[in-house]
UniProtKB/TrEMBL annotation:
UniProt xrefs under InterPro entries: Rossmann-like_a/b/a_fold (IPR014729), Universal_stress_UspA (IPR006015), UspA (IPR006016)
Sequence ranges assigned to domain UspA in this UniProt record: 19-154, 168-292
PANTHER family associated with the record: STRESS RESPONSE PROTEIN NHAX (PTHR46268), UNIVERSAL STRESS PROTEIN UP12 (PTHR46268:SF6)
Family listed: Belongs to the universal stress protein A family.
Source organism of this protein record: Silvibacterium bohemicum
Official protein name in the record: Nucleotide-binding universal stress UspA family protein
Length: 315
């Protein structure tokens, strides 16, 4: 009983973060800020902007963004740019601070998450220029593999619509394997926290025995059991079982329901983004909306630690 209650509270806490980290390459603020500001205001969260300053020997000679021969000038320019971005966030009534550290981006981001005890990371998958692509493109897979908090990733096709910053419709593909109930509960809590309509989707492989009528009926029953009376809730929770290619059906359904977010569950036994042709990578690359990845076993947050004694009493 205690474990179930703790898990329930942790899901709700992660659905409404009080500490958000935004990883920035300094060129992506225009499409990341609407998401950061909307999510911070929704849960009264504090925002920390983080930027990793790469060692000069790792920078491409054609980058042409800053004169990297002068390290002091680099640091000053980065700090000035970060403070300018922070000022835009603060002007919307959101508290914000900045951190610029020397090092490899994945390492810097993970360290800042640890220091700030963040509950959510928001980032772009790559920037618009060669340097930005190197900073938050080639290392995005490592960050997503190793960060144990929900990560909202804004892919290349999800940048043009700021309306997605406040989700009204959320799509959650359900694997019906492993600890899928944990992620489904997180998706439901996320939907409730944002007053968003939620669709739970399960995709059956049409070329396997999974597509049998018996399996189809079982999948529908399992999805319905995740959200009893879901259609009667406000906002409602819908369930959908389809046959087809996993990536294609996820993207097709997201387009049909005009999803603002896609929530993907991640089994900790497997990396979130282990290969370039993985389901997560394909969905993130092609989706017209942000993708939020949630690990089945996220690290214990500072708020869940503080409430353990209360949860023991409730159990």
């Amino acid at each position: 009983m205690q474990t179930r209650i703790e898990s329930r509270f942790e899901n709700r806490i992660l659905a409404a973060p009080d500490q958000i980290v935004m990883a920035t390459d300094l060129t992506d603020a225009d499409f990341l800020l609407p998401h950061v500001i909307a999510q911070a205001k929704a849960s009264n969260a504090h925002v920390t902007l983080v930027h990793a300053i790469l060692p000069a020997n790792l920078l491409p000679t054609e980058a042409g963004m800053i004169d990297y021969a002068d390290q002091e000038k680099i640091d000053d320019d980065v700090q000035r740019t970060l403070l300018g971005i922070a000022a835009k966030i603060q002007s919307c009534g959101v508290s914000c601070d900045v951190i610029a550290e020397h090092g490899f981006p994945a390492d810097v981001v993970q360290e800042v998450i640890k220091i700030t005890r963040a509950d959510r990371l928001i980032m772009g998958t790559h920037g618009r220029k060669k340097l930005a692509q190197m900073v938050l493109g080639s290392v995005a897979d490592e960050i997503l593999r190793n960060v144990n908090i929900p990560v909202l990733a804004v892919g290349p096709r999800a940048r043009q619509n700021p309306d997605h910053a406040t989700p009204r419709r959320i799509l959650h593909p359900v694997s019906l394997r492993g600890d899928y109930r944990r992620t489904a509960q997180f998706a439901m809590d996320l939907a409730q926290a944002n007053r968003a309509e939620l669709t739970l989707l399960h995709v059956l492989d049409p070329d396997s025995e999974e597509a049998s009528e018996r399996t189809l009926a079982w999948a529908k029953t399992e999805l319905s059991a995740l959200a009893p009376n879901g259609a009667d809730l406000v906002p409602p929770i819908h369930t959908l079982v389809v046959c087809g290619g996993r990536v294609e059906e996820i993207l097709h359904t997201a387009f049909n329901i005009q999803a603002d977010w896609i929530v993907l569950g991640v089994d900790t036994a497997f990396p979130f983004w282990p290969f370039r042709d993985s389901t997560a990578y394909k969905v993130l690359s092609a989706a017209g909306c942000p993708v939020l990845g949630f690990r089945h076993e996220p690290r214990e947050t500072h708020r869940t630690k503080a409430r353990k004694e209360e949860l023991v009493v409730l159990a």
